[in-house]
Amino acid sequence: MIPRRRNGGEAVGAPSGREDPLKARSWSDDAAVIAKLTRRLIPLFVVMFFVNYLDRTNIGIAALAMNADLRLTPVDYGVAAGIFSLAYALCGIPANVLFHRIGARRWLGAITIAWGLVALGTGFVFDKLSLNVARLALGVAEAGFTPGVLLYLTQWFPSHSRGQAFAIFTAGNPIATILGGPLSATILVMPGLGLWLHNWQWLFIIEALPAIFLGAFVLVYLDDRPANAKWLTPSEKQWLAEQLALEEQTKVNVETGVLNALRNGPTLALSLCKFLDLTCSIGVVMWLPQIIASFGHLTTLQVSFANGVPFLLAAGTAVVVARHSDRTGERTWHVAAPAFLGTAGFLLVALTDSMVLDAIGICIATIGFWTSNTVGWTLSPKYLSGAALASGLALVNSVGNLGGFVGPFVIGWLRQASGGFRLPLAFLAGVLAVNGLVVVALQAFDRRGAASRSARAPPWTRQGP
């Protein structure tokens, strides 16, 4: 990836008239460092996110048989699917503080093994209560993963390449839906598993095993910081250190303390955005197999393949939009516009009775909320640094995942009350529209704050036009 210009300023890595200790470096050298980081780190995290998301969402496919065996009502299933997010939200901030203190290698390795063991235990649930306990435990175990990896990437990738890194990393999520759905459905309908367990129980057990092996691999593969990486040359380490240090110096009104992050206005606004986004995202992920099944007479395997199509389109779109955001340096409308697009998609499904339009609307809605959610992760590092960034990312992720409870529960409640999915999808349209409006309002707040600071500054410190 070629280094980009930041907000119209001097290109990172480009030669200038000032004395530069790295002046012998070329743009291609700097792009090669980013490419090396991407090759070394991103594939591992994509695979980890694939397994992580598969273990938390395979309940959506399992529900096609599990609900009847455990005698779950739509509300019961909505609670079980969403209760994961309550534990996830409560544990997110302490998990990322521990990550900041313990280090990436040990922390990510340990929690990956932990969630694998808990996911395996879900295969032995026998009623509504035991399912809810297993989902709560899984939320505790997984709470530190996503915010931890996002924090880790900010310690390795300069801001001008971070959007793409975030987008490729989070692609593990839709890949889990695209590939995991058919895998889960195959296990669900596979004959001859038996051994006193239902196939949906084997589904949980089989899909939990990769996490345990991945956790052990992380403990020997990952480096905590660029300075510890033997696979980087000294000049590459120096370039990264200077880029990341320069980025810290250019932040405005940055918060650095853990507690400061919890009362930082923009971070609270971004937490609300993530809550709204994940209300849609997790709600759709947990219910989409049943929504698709309601469109017509499809087999379990057909439903699983159809379930992956919207996420395949969303993953590709998110990477393209994130790369464009990195190239232009613009973030707000790369987050808000997809949210408004997703709103239109949900309304299309809610207001029409055509199976073709329903399918198109679901794809548009998924592209919208997925892209908005992905690029939205680039906003927090603009306001936070150090330990505050660790707790701030965790706060955004934790509050956001409360939406992961609200979405599945409200969809289940509205479905039970209305007898269908039209009203729940109209609700999601409104939620996503508010998300876009909050992002736009945050940009307006930033501009007013910048104008106010400029007006209060002494005349000799102001920049000319």
Key traits:
single chain, 465 residues, mainly alpha, Growth Hormone, Chain: A, 17 helices, 77% helix, 0% strand, disordered C terminus
Provide an overview of this structure.
Helix 2 packs across helix 12 (265-295), helix 7 runs antiparallel to helix 13 and helix 8 (172-189) packs antiparallel against helix 9 (199-221). The chain has a single domain (27-450), classed as MFS general substrate transporter like domains (Growth Hormone, Chain: A, Up-down Bundle). It has 17 helices and no strands. Residues 1-25, 252-257 and 450-465 have low confidence and may be disordered. Helices cover 77% and strands 0% of the residues. It is mainly alpha-helical.
Brief summary:
The chain has 465 residues and is mostly helical.
Low-confidence blocks of residues = 1-25, 252-257, 450-465
Query: Could you say which structural class the secondary elements and strand pairing correspond to?
Result: mainly alpha
Gyration radius, to the nearest Å?
Answer: 23 Å
> Span between N and C termini?
32 Å
Q: Globular, elongated, flat, extended or rod-shaped: what is the shape? A: globular
Beta-strand level of the residues, as a percent range?
Answer: under 5%
Helix percent reads over 70%
Per DSSP E runs of 2 or more residues, the count of β-strands stands at 0
Listing every helix as H and every strand as E from the N terminus to the C terminus, the arrangement reads HHHHHHHHHHHHHHHHH
Count of discrete alpha- or pi-helical segments spanning 4 or more residues: 17
- For the record, the count of structural domains works out to 1
Q: What is the H level of CATH, i.e. the homologous superfamily?
A: MFS general substrate transporter like domains
Average pLDDT works out at: 80
Largest sheet: none
